[in-house]
Amino acid sequence: MHLRSISLRGFKSFPDPVEIRLERGVAVVVGPNGSGKSNIADAIVWAAGSLSPTELRAEKADDVLFAGSAGQPAADWCEVELLFDNADGRLGDLEFSEVSILRRLHRGGEGQYLVNRAPVRRTDLVELLSDVGLGSGMHSVIGQGRVEAVLASSPTERRALVEEAAGLGKFKRRRHRAELKLARVAREVERARDVEAEARKRLRPLALQATAAERAEKLRVQIAAAEARVAELDLAELADRLAQAQERKAASALERKRVEGQLESLLLERGGVEEELADAAGKREAATAGLYRLRSAGERVALRTESLGDLAERLRRELEAARTARPRADVEDTLVAARHAARERDRLTEQAAAAAERLRALERSLAEREGIPPAARELSERGHRLALDGLDVDPGYERAVAAALAFRASAVTAASPSEALGLVE
User: 115 forms bridges with which residues in the sheet?
Assistant: First the structure.
């Protein structure tokens, strides 16, 4: 394996980019003390994946960054790139003729490893360099005072050094990592066994719970089926009740229509009856007005009859007196006056009879509509003259007034004209 070049930038005493090309054979770097010869060896160790600041002659990881000078500011990041010739394919399984190993560090601790400009893990980089004997702890780089330490080392340390030089260090590290993994696996297995034991302890309660859950699920299904059946029965019952309610509603509608029809007919009949009552009331008012007129006419006839009676009585007395004392001429005048009074009486009597006839006709019409007491109706049918039966009569006294009128009518019929006039009065 051949290291072709070393590129440095911002590493320790190299603030500017520097590329060191190495030819095959032995390469020697010559310079005075403090010129940075040892920094080149530190750059190779740091790029190979070293994490120990003591191997780099530093106190902390950020000390590898350029700290600055009077004319140069401090570097914010640094990087070291190693370019290997891999024409013989000794550098792992990489199929590249040249392999670039680059490590970059930013101030603050953020670092990065790249192989052929591709980011990789530090473990992968260490494994890759272990195949060529370059890496941490392989003593490929021997610094100042390291020879004396090797010569004064114990047999065990020498054996480790020989094994590293023989290339066994890689396998020892692999074995160590495998042992660490086995230890972690053993711990995980132990934890898994503890979990298994705990699970076995809880297995029976869990089995009981699972059985109870299965039974609960079955019961839930059965309950759901029963509830569905109950719901179906309820729906069927509700459907029957709905059908019955609809039938009752239809019957109620028909009955309502029938009742409304009867009500309309009754309202029509009521309207007709009200119209008849209105007509009857109008006719009754007209008849009452006529009856009042007849009553007033009867009263006037009665007054005139009374005056004629007085006149007849006076004439009778005067006639008797004239027969005894007065001359014949006066008697004749008196007779003429008496005849005139008699004719006037006859005329008034005829008027009274006509008025009585009209009154009887009016009473018959009123009897047909309202109903006259039986006694008065019977007297009216007999044809008696009831000239004074148009008086106002209080309710309940119809029969008494009718009897009195009948008695007076019979008396008028049986009496003489002069007596009749007195009775009528």
Answer: 101, 118
Q: Which residues pair with 120 in a beta bridge?
A: 113
Consecutive H or E run containing 112: strand 111-115
The CA angle 215-221-223, to the nearest 5 degrees, is 100
Residue 422, H or E segment: helix 417-424
E strand or H helix that includes residue 331: helix 328-370
Instruction: Decide if pLDDT at 126 tops 70.
Output: yes
Q: In degrees rounded to 5, what are phi and psi of residue 183?
A: -65, -45
CA nearest neighbour of 160 among 147, 144, 172, 178: 172
- Mean pLDDT, range 333-354, rounded to an integer: 69
CA angle 238, 243, 244 (to 5 degrees): 95
CB atoms within 10 A of CB 353: 13
Cβ 64 vs Cβ 41: under 8 Å: no
Confidence tier at 189 by pLDDT (50, 70, 90): very high
Residues in a beta bridge with 104: 79, 112
Which of 169, 101, 160 minimizes the C-alpha distance to 131?
Answer: 169
The pLDDT tens digits for 256-313 are 999 999 888 888 888 888 888 787 777 777 767 766 777 777 677 677 777 767 776 7
CB 366 within 8 A of CB 289: no
Q: Which residues pair with 100 in a beta bridge?
A: 83
Mean pLDDT of the chain: 76
Buried b (16+ CB within 10 A) or exposed e, 289-302: ebbeebbebbeebb
Residue at token pair 């008496």: 338
CB 374 within 8 A of CB 345: no
Residues 6+ positions from 66 with CB-CB distance below 8 Å: 10, 11, 12, 13, 14, 15, 72, 74, 75, 78
pLDDT digits (tens, 9 = 90+) for 9-64: 999 888 889 998 988 888 888 888 878 888 888 888 888 888 888 778 888 888 88
Q: Which amino acid is at 261?
A: G
Question: Tokens for 298?
Answer: 């009867």
In which band, very low, low, confident or very high, does the pLDDT at 356 lie, cut at 50, 70 and 90?
Answer: low
- Amino acid occupying residue 245: A
